[in-house]
């Protein structure tokens, strides 16, 4: 949540350097900086280092969008790796795991109950390489 309670962007820096982030933080009043308890950032070591330096009392968290993005990348990498290990080749459109790749990345709310149950049961039974 931002300082105004609207959930918007508080500020943006031109560059991804620690110095630029610290310079932006220095423009804010000290009492405001001390009142911050959590900072949501993207997955950038530079931003984390800047927050650790400029706001050492805060808890740093990764924003929701970037957590989901990272999870999707890891799931896709695992799917590709498993396909290569099981089939000794890249996935093809006729492979179950390849045809289900988009469904694997959908949120639960975007799946029908039947789609979710099929995927969940296949995962629970350890069925790799079968269509979901």
Explain what you see.
The protein is mostly helical and 132 residues long. It has two domains: 18-62; 65-124. Helices cover 52% and strands 6% of the residues. The chain has seven helices and two strands, in the order H-H-E-H-E-H-H-H-H. The chain has a two-stranded parallel ribbon. The chain is elongated and about 60 Å long.
Distance between the termini: 38 Å
Going across the biggest sheet, name each strand in turn. 1-2
Helix count equals 7
Report the average pLDDT across residues: 85
Q: What does the overall shape look like? A: elongated
Per DSSP E runs of 2 or more residues, the count of β-strands stands at 2
What would you call the structural class?
A: mainly alpha
**Main β sheet profile:** 2 strands, parallel
SSE succession: HHEHEHHHH
Give the uncertain stretches in residue-range form: none
């Amino acid at each position: 949540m931002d300082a105004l309670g609207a959930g918007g962007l508080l500020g943006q820096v031109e560059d991804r350097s620690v110095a630029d982030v610290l310079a932006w933080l220095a423009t804010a009043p000290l009492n405001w900086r001390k009142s911050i308890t959590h900072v949501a950032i993207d997955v950038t070591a530079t931003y984390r280092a800047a927050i650790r330096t400029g706001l050492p009392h805060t808890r740093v968290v990764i924003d929701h969008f970037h957590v989901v993005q990272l999870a999707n990348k890891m799931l896709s990498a695992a799917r590709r790796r498993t396909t290569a290990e099981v089939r000794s080749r890249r996935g093809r459109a006729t492979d179950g795991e390849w045809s289900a790749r988009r469904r694997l990345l959908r949120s639960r709310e975007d799946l029908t109950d039947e789609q979710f149950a099929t995927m969940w049961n296949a995962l629970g039974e350890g069925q790799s390489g079968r269509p979901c």
